[in-house]
Write a structure and sequence with these properties.
The chain has 14 helices and 19 strands. By secondary structure, it is α+β, with helices and mostly antiparallel strands. It has three domains: 5-26 and 106-232, no CATH class; 32-102, Winged helix-like DNA-binding domain superfamily/Winged helix DNA-binding domain (Arc Repressor Mutant, subunit A), CATH 1.10.10.10; 241-459, Endonuclease, Chain A, CATH 3.30.870. The strands form five sheets. An eight-stranded mixed sheet has the order 8-16-15-14-9-12-13-19, sandwiched between helices. Strands 1, 4, 5, 6 and 7 form a five-stranded mixed sheet that branches. Helix 13 (367-379) links the parallel strand 12 (354-361) and strand 13. Helix 11 packs parallel to helix 12. The protein is elongated, with a radius of gyration of 34 Å.
């Protein structure tokens, strides 16, 4: 258990990536026509006179002259002082052993579509991934402006590895031997795409966050890792335990507060309770944002058990209140969770619930349009979404609730001495009393306002 690490958050980073069309030539060993092959083989064994060669092949002198004309002109065979024909060093280089066929390396032309991310210029897959639900990394503008030159250099340096990884398509080679690069003829930048890097934050039982390690994924890992650290570790969080404590009091919650101290979290105790189960408690502990694997698995198990509404019944709302942190929703796992919740809203032709996602919005004079554009940039599709001012408990708390059925709460703890990103811990419950209390708290928030002309519920966000 001492080597145990716990995944507590996930953030995706998006690196601008350029796709290039690279036209190149490679050297491939090729055989010779039948007569020339055996002519070279015979002379490889020993120099021979024209008479001996004529007898060996059954040629007359005119036929022999035609057979030796081309290899003599190419400097592959020559006459010795004794008048015998012998192989020059050039032709001897066609052989690797007595039993081998003579082979010559000849240039072959080919083109390939190759993508390099613009932080460390690592070769990545050509797959276009969306630009949303992730933090976009900055790239060196000088490198970007000279990208075709960098692509040429990286392609040349790593050609053999690209071939071995079968990233350049098939090659015409003898006995499936590896080709060698002859020349890079033309490099053309075609388009810019998004490359997604997933960082799963893990912590051990002594509150030590596992360092970022990209050595297994990228040849030039240092440049990529540095950009990720710049985008994460350099943004110092402010401790938010006061806001979290207010949430614990409002929810009358004892699930997580027992494990959180001013400068540490009792992960040993938390993990022990999660392993043992919460059979004697009205909740189940959750680790991570509500869209991460463990919480979503718990939520989905209960969504599967929902009974479809009868025609006369009015659908209740499954309400998801996002956390107002820099990292909430910045993962492809968020999109997966959103699609899951939407898919479970209907069961065949019957209705389970109406889905609504409440997105926290920072204060701004034109908050509807400003927040709409910001969330459109972050998430893409804003269907089923409405805006709320700041979010629950200063945006530190994430809630998913279906009145009368279940509720899930995640407290996004900002503890900068432990982690560069928030540590979301929470609970899931089907206890009617706890659910009712959570519904009461969020309804009060929605009906409240910052001031007389600033209601917490903003409503539909404008994206134009």
């Amino acid at each position: 258990m001492e080597n145990t690490t716990i995944e507590f958050n996930e953030v995706d980073y998006i690196v601008p990536t350029e796709t290039f069309k690279i036209e190149f030539s490679y050297l491939s060993k090729q055989g010779f026509p039948f007569v020339k092959e055996f002519l070279l083989k015979a002379l490889y064994i020993s120099p021979l006179s024209k008479f001996e060669l004529s007898s060996f092949f059954g040629f007359n002198l005119r036929e022999l002259a035609a057979a030796i004309e081309e290899p003599i002109s190419k400097g592959e065979i020559a006459y010795s002082d004794e008048g015998k024909l012998f192989l020059t060093p050039l032709a001897k280089g066609y052989f690797s052993s007595l039993d081998d066929k003579p082979m010559v390396e000849t240039p072959q032309t080919k083109s390939a579509s190759v993508s390099f991310e613009l932080a460390g210029f690592n070769k990545v897959k050509n797959q276009h991934q969306n630009w949303h639900s992730g933090l976009r990394l900055k790239v060196n503008h000088e490198i970007q402006s000279l990208s075709e030159q960098h692509a040429r250099a990286m392609f040349t340096e790593h050609f053999q590895q690209l071939v071995q990884n079968d990233e350049l398509g098939g090659f015409k080679t003898h006995d499936n031997s590896l080709p060698s690069l002859y020349s890079v003829d033309k490099v053309t930048s075609k388009k810019t795409i998004a490359h997604r890097i997933k960082r799963r934050f893990e912590i051990d039982l002594d509150n030590q966050v596992k360092p970022l390690d990209l050595r297994q994924e990228y040849v030039n890992d240092e440049a990529v890792a540095q950009e990720i650290l710049n985008e994460t570790d350099n943004f110092r969080l402010s401790n938010n335990l006061n806001s979290i404590t207010s949430a614990w009091d409002a929810f009358e919650d004892m699930s997580i507060s027992r494990f959180v101290h001013d400068a540490s979290i009792d992960f040993r105790g938390l993990l022990a309770e999660m392993v043992a189960g919460s059979y004697d408690k009205p909740y189940e502990l959750l680790l991570g944002p509500l869209y991460s694997r463990q919480p979503l698995s718990v939520i989905e198990n209960h969504l599967k058990q929902l009974k479809p509404l009868k025609k006369a019944q009015k659908a209740k709302e499954l309400s998801w209140y996002g956390a107002n942190t820099r990292y909430w929703g910045m993962s492809d796992g968020f999109n997966t969770a959103k699609v899951t919740l939407i898919n479970y809203s209907n069961k065949g032709k019957s209705k389970n619930y109406d889905f609504k996602l409440y997105l926290p919005c920072d204060e701004h004079p034109n908050i509807e349009s400003h927040a709409g554009r910001a969330w459109k940039h972050k998430l893409g599709n804003l269907e089923f979404c409405e805006g709320v001012r700041n979010g629950l408990f200063d945006g530190c708390v994430e809630v998913l609730v279906l009145e009368g059925e279940f509720a899930a709460v995640s407290y996004h703890l900002a503890m900068p001495d432990i982690s560069p990103v928030h540590i979301p811990l929470g609970f899931f419950t089907t206890d009617k009393k706890l659910i009712a209390n959570i519904v009461s708290v969020v309804n009060e928030f929605l009906s409240d306002s910052v001031s007389h002309d600033k209601p917490n519920l903003i409503g539909k966000l404008q994206t134009k």
